[in-house]
Please model this.
Amino acid sequence: MHHFTQHVLTANHPLTGLDPRVKILCALALLLMVISCKGMTFPLLVAAVSLALCLSMGVRPKVLAIRFAEPLFIAVMVVLLKLLFVGKVPLFAVDFFGLQVVVHQDGLLEGLLVASRIAGAVLVVALVGFATQFTELMAALTWLRVPRGFIEVALFAWRYLFVLFEDAQVVYSAQKNRLGYDGYRRSFRSFGTLAGVLVIKAFDNSQNITIAMVQRGYDGSMPMLEHKPFLLGEVLASTLIVVVMGVMWQRF
Model:
């Protein structure tokens, strides 16, 4: 289960105690600024500040590296594609098996701009995720008028993901003890069996959960999704931060 637990590690950090609605609104404002900026300075500044805040909360660099493996791959591919296929100002040319590959300077700049936006946006979202419990995040999304059906499905999926993971560990351990992963052919067969068992268990659990909740009078309302009043200090501080970032966004 520890693979899926959240990494909110520092309970006394200022960001962890902040109202999740305020964090989401600030994150949305920063995302709009990062996406719409014309230079690389502002997205890189946002990325650096978000990374520093993640580290200050006690998030391990290994966890950050795993989280950003896919966005980093996308950013690298964007830079390569822009470098090779976009632009008019040649930087240098390379002969590759008789084919001349031209690297463009303006394409490189465009690729780095997109990569900086990806880094800034991903780090902002990751910062909100590290600083906010999943249930609090879902409660804040209901305040933003996200459909309750989506929130309900997300909460149940998050809760029973751990149950399925534990079932998967039991089946995997049994298969491994019986040499089920000895060789590629047997490994693929065992993995297919494991996936099939999990699908059946998920279907059975969904039926049992539905029957149990209907019998207990579940009507779709969840007390955990109720909201507390905003704190004036949090709102003013967050507004000031967004205004300062907006001024920097206009300059950079």
Summary: The first strand starts at residue 90 and ends at 96. The chain has a mean pLDDT of 83. The two ends are 43 Å apart (CA to CA).
